[in-house]
Amino acid sequence: MPQYNFLCKECNQEFSLRLSVSKLDSQKCVFCGTDSLKIVPNNSSNILLENNTSGEHLEKYISETKESIKEYKKELSKEWDL
Length: 82
Ligand SMILES: [Zn+2]
Fold this sequence. Notes:
- By secondary structure, the protein is an alpha+beta fold.
- It has one domain (about 5-80).
- The chain contains two helices and three strands, in the order βββαα.
- The chain has a three-stranded antiparallel beta sheet, with no helix packed on it.
- About 5% of the residues are buried.
- The site of zinc ion has 8 residues, from loops.
């Protein structure tokens, strides 16, 4: 199972979990229980710390990551007829 890093928009906590792609959308913050989570790409914590002002690039990267997850899910559901 792939591991994902999440950043909570409510309490700003970061955590990582191993979960299947189908659970991504319904994942809630383990600290406060909100579902306002951002998926943070692995290895990005350094970028976040060093490059606080250029979040735009990261946003783009995250939305691209989300897009590819969507595509991946589509492929999966085709394959497994979910
Ligand atoms: Zn939270």
